[in-house]
Amino acid sequence: MKIPISWLKDYIDLDGLSVEDIARKLTLAGLEVDEIKYAGLPMPEYKDGEKHEFKTSGIGWDKEKLVVAEIREVMPHPNADRLTLLDLFDGTQNQTVLTGAPNIFHLKGTGKLAKPIKAAYAKEGSTIYDGHVDGLVLTTLKRAKIRGVESYSMVCSEKELGISEEHEGIILLDDDAPVGMPLTDYMGDAVLDISILPSMARNANVLGVARELAALTGRELRKHVNKETGKQGDKETGKQGKNAVRSTQKSVTDLVEIEITVPELNPRFVMGLIRDIEIKPSPYHIQRRLRLAGMRPINNIVDATNYAMLDVGEPLHAFDYDVLVGRVGQVGNLPYKIKIITRAAQDGEKLTTLDGNERTLTSANVLVCDEKGSLALAGVMGGLESEVTDKTKTVLLEGANWNSINTRKTAGQHNLQSEASFRFSRGVHPALAEQGVKRGLQLMAEWSGGVIAPGLVDEYPLKPKDPMIAITPKDVKRLLGIELTAKQIAELLTRLEFKCTVEKNIVKAKTPPHRLDIGEGAVGLADVLEEVARVYGYDRIPETRMSDSLPPQLGNPQHEWEERTRDLLVALGLQEVVSYRMTSRERESRLFAPEGSQTLREHVVLANPIAPERSVMRRSLPASLLETAEKNARGGSLAMFEIGPVFEPQQNGLPNEPRKLAIVMTGARLASAWDVKDSPSYDFYDMKGRIELLLSGLRLSGISYAPAPASSSPSAPLSAEYLHPGKAAEVKVNGQTVGVFGELHPLAKERYDFETAVIVAEFDLDALRNAAPTYGITPVSEFPPVFEDIAVIVDEAVAAERVESLIRQTGGRTVTRVRLFDVYRDEKIGAGKKSLAYNLTYQSDKTMTDAEAAAIRTKIVKRLEHEVGAKLRS
Amino acid sequence: MSDQLNEIEKAALESLQSVTDSSALEAWRVSHLGRSSPLMSVFAGLGKLSKEERPVVGQGANRVKVALESALEERAKLVKEAALAKSLEEDALDVTLPGRGIHVGRLHPSTQQLRKVLSILADMGFQVYTSREVETDEYNFQLLNFPPNHPARDMQDTFFVEAEGRGDNPILLRTHTSPGQIHAMREFSAMNPDNPPPIRIALPGMCFRYEQITARSEIQFNQVEGLVVGENITFADLKGTLVDFARRMFGQNARTRFRASYFPFTEPSAEMDIECFVCGGKGCSVCKNSGWLEILGCGMVHPVVLQNGGYDPARYSGFAWGMGPERQLMLRYKIDDIRYFWGNDLRFLDQF
After folding, report:
1. CATH architecture entry for A470-539
2. Is ipTM over 0.90?
3. Beta-carbon separation of B258 and A538 below 8 A
4. Which of A12, A226, A675, A705 has a 20 to 30 Å separation from A792 between CA atoms?
């Protein structure tokens, strides 16, 4: 919402407040000023080191150099047909000014003007925007010869003064502009660009902002319209100027009647009529204000509807009355009484809106109709047929109230965001319908010479509650933490036009009839407390430390455990990544062969994805991580992990969100260095080593590794189907599968761009977390250990893990460490055989002798011979 | 005889002069002090000498032996020093060659920032509470006082999940961590419905908004919310707590201000700004010349929300706030493109 300062001054005395002061007060009270755009008022000058407060743009006008002047004659240029020379008086002397402005060109050579034209005059040395280049570029006027005539000053367009983009012609000021007056004093302005919060829809207009400012500064909100916009007249009641109604014509109520079929959708409908209007441009200062406020001036009637909306907040719609009469016909000299009906549209009904688009409606839309059919899409946009044109003589002006939810739906449905729908969809108080129509008619009368017909047609079937809220000093103390008396509370609320009474220390505050944001009961109390706090000033509320009792200490073991897991993974040299949760089926199916069961898995599907490649929630964490790895694979070394949820859909219900860990390793095992020529690539055992360290870091025991099952059911939480069947293992803790890992299946790898083998691990974090950690520690013996190597030859089919576990079982507590240091295959030891060599460490709670160690060793060898047919290798 | 000894000594000492390494030294020892050296043959011949000569020659031989041994020792020291000096010189490295790296792991910057925020909050007594990422409209909006079709929903463009027969309660991706407020309040109030216990929790997690992915907007982002509920909680407590937090987070000199704002689930609502730490409030591109940075939104828990959580608003009050770790990182490290976070380019991640 763009609010010109000059317009605010219609309502409130701003003397002594700088533009920044005003912007600061509004911002702190929730009317956040995003930007201040200066158009003539002096800009603040920040010295080096001084603090800025607002994003600022625009220019201030030099008081000496930019003035109101009058053009007395438009003379031809001796050497250029398209240019003219102006005889201009700037208040002190006559000047000759060169211009090509089209909007005074027609006066060329007509001699002394009967009525001089007022213009914005920039003297030599003025700094203004260059009107002839794109964008806003400052330029300073210098003396120069143009086609043989000296030029040193100019008459300005709005663009040159930073008011708008308008550069079609020069500004033609209103006739009463005082010649010689500095322009900054005459029409210098600054525009506050304010974000309107949903709760502050009431302030999407100048009066609303002025009311807030009055409350925040304790100044008076002026009830009278200032001379700039109107004559006298009470803004709040909309009482019209006494000259406006000139005759005893027929009352509107004789000409028009209104039927509201659904009051919930249309709580109020008000109409007024003005006749004998002359369509023409609005006064210049009105056009300027509209442009500053971001609207395009059209003509005096349309401008009046827009101006009144920006002024008091009620969107208005002007119908060409004669078109409506034409639709229903006449009886003799008298028109039928026009009947306006508001109703829900029929599905498939059509209406061509003002923007020329034919729209197909649904029963969720509301229409303004006459007896012949639809006229306007309620609360959103008028219809094309009955709009005001250059020929319009009589205007029927609508100020209605529409249901906010319905308007919001309709505007969304037709993608039609208008000034009207912006306001109605946020809620407009029905009281404003009457104020708006009166204000609109008054402006039309002033700017068009029209005559307002007496009376208004006003259907008001559904009045809002305007709740009465009881609030006490105790409430204020309990929720805001400040001490205010009932009288002080009442005073703060009265500034916002709440009608307050104080009785027995209870303030009863009646909601003023312009706001819909105050609820009832406990909600109403919170609503009113916020108003007390805002007007009192958030900055004046003290900062205290909580004195309430402490809550139960529950902690979050799951979160703590997960963070510990992250730390362990980082310590193992793995980089954490965080991927998008959204992916597509196609992206995930890269990991799984087309015939793989994963492709059959269901996803959580988005109803409104931003793009096809982000259309489902991920089902596979390794798929996400592999994408990241692929993007980063630049021939180096990659080792990364991600922890997070995957999403498993449930029939029309909330999905399961099991948490997973994925690890991907690929590329060189050794960190690159100038003396490392060829590093081996990461392989299965690099991953396994890290997994072993992770599990020991989590203090888990009872861990076993086994070849991963070749196929798994689609519902299995962990699937190894994307892994090389001979290079994949599942990890169990106490018999429970917690993860799978291995080398990426060659078919899957083909679908990615990797140069080296890719090792992938996937863990079910819930299963891993639920595995019971080891209790206690292994004591550290003070007695010297005995070390011994043992090598056995076994069949290829015997798993290394089996041999190791037999050694441990047989050795018991005395064998404290078993380390496989060599795996050897050779014809000498026989085909289909392998030699496994172990370092054994014997240690007990006394000094061990070699003989004792040898005895255990013998037992181990015998056991291995017996169980797996091992032979001791000499 | 004594001449002979002198000869032996002289010859030995002379030849020692040319010894420069340890093997020559050993050879010298063998030839001059070894079993078959001239000196040792003098000792061996002592038995053949007369009684008178024996002590004289013996003493003389001993003197020479001591002299040679001490010369050897001295020479050995010199040889060793020379050898060391040589090897030190030879072993010198090019210290300007680059060092050898290792593969290090790092936490994602968002995790690092989340931890920083949560650890400060933990110090302040806030426990971590986590909840699901896919939610119902009821928990994400309705129970938080966003009725269907409320204009405040425009502030949070939403991803919806395909699901049938849900009516007014569609499934969606949470737009904020606030549904956790309801989950937590209901969990806590269920412990003792007549006298629900106080709450002080931090709610971290991933949230989603229907946006185009650009340098300035993302479809997912982390949020951390704080929630306090109790019997004596005021707006002044909200200010005090958040100012304390800001000082821990941004330094003890951090200046803050509270602006009135609007969120459906809090009232009164506010935004807390901190003075721009890049320019010190003088105005710069980071704070868009305003001197202030928006850091968090906050407010007193709305009575409807308290009620929905099982806390009687006539007896209990509370406050809540929400903030974005990625936004904090962007301000802190002058990151001008939010897409870096989920882009996961190692050249970005390596910098944290």
Report:
1. 2-Layer Sandwich (3.30)
2. no
3. yes
4. A705
